[in-house]
Amino acid sequence: MIIMGKKFWNFKNASEGIGELLIYGPIASESWWGDEVTPKQFKEDLDKLGDISELNIYINSGGGDVFAGQAIHSILKRHSAKKTVYVDGLAASIASVVAMAGDTIVMPKNAMMMIHKAWTWAVGNANDFRKLADDMEKIEETIIAAYESRDLTISRDEIVELMDAETWLTADEALEYGLIDEVEEEKKVAASIDGGFLVMNGTKMDLSNYKNKPKFISLNEPNKCDATNSVSEPKIDDEKVIENVIPLIYFEKTIEINEKKFKEEEK
Asked: Quick check: 19 pLDDT over 90?
């Protein structure tokens, strides 16, 4: 029996002529156990929405496979519906490229976007690595093109510099650079740290491969949990908090943590 992988997207007809797309989790080209998670399946699911005039897209993803993300970006970009993208929590790496398919892109004040150079793993000899470096630079050109499709207020060289530095952008910064169109009020989002993963709205994202990820919060002492497993407001060392803090404390203090992990840290 083949066990099919779980799709990271969900389409639905919200009302007549209006569709919705939820992209939560890592973007993949295939699953470990089957071939359900593919851009081909993504397009088929989009087509099943029928003749829609509007498509609302909600993203909360730490990124994933660059080719799958590029294909999904192209599929969405070609669609005739008016597309509004909402970055619910995080649009990092190739997920930020998918977001560029929107005619209008909206971020809450407590959401973030991250852009960086493409990276991969490889084995081989010197010739293989020279060719790989050339190929990676070509891939980066396609990523830059997606950002340049927006009405940017910064130059191509500045975009490249931001990618080189693996830059984590607040909503205000993304708006300033022209990567999005609108900043809306903060959203109440449940977030936690679980074994090195960022968990937002039930979506687990592995950010361990990103070298410049912002620190979440710096605590002087452990949080005190009550019987409902909620977390009291942490005490913060202001000198250690990075300015671009990933949305954790800003989620109107609605923070959930794994009770087992908390008890282990208490010991």
From this structure: yes
Who contacts 114 (Cβ-Cβ below 8 Å, separation ≥6)? Answer: 63, 90, 91, 92, 93, 96, 166, 167, 168, 169, 210, 213
**137 located within any domain:** yes
* Contact in structure between 205 and 218 (CB atoms under 8 Å): no
Place of tokens 């620190």: 215
Are the C-beta atoms of residues 112 and 67 closer than 8 Å to each other? no
Beta partners for 243? none
Which positions are catalytic? 93, 116
- The predicted-structure confidence for 96-143, as pLDDT tens digits, reads as follows 999 999 999 999 998 999 999 887 777 788 888 888 888 889 989 999
Q: Tens digits of per-residue pLDDT, 233-264?
A: 333 333 333 333 333 333 322 233 333 434 45
- Distance of alpha carbon 108 from alpha carbon 88, whole angstroms: 7
59 assigned to some structural domain: yes
Residue 193 lies in a domain: no
Number of domains in the chain: 1
| Residue in 188, 209, 195 with CA at minimum distance from that of residue 257 | 195
Residue at 190 is within a domain: no
- The answer to whether residues 168 and 212 touch, using CB atoms and an 8 Å cutoff, is yes
What 3-state class would DSSP assign to 52?
coil
User: Containing domain of residue 51, as a range?
Assistant: 9-184
Exposure class string for 36-59: b at 16+ Cβ within 10 A, else e: ebbbeebbeebeebeebeebbbbb
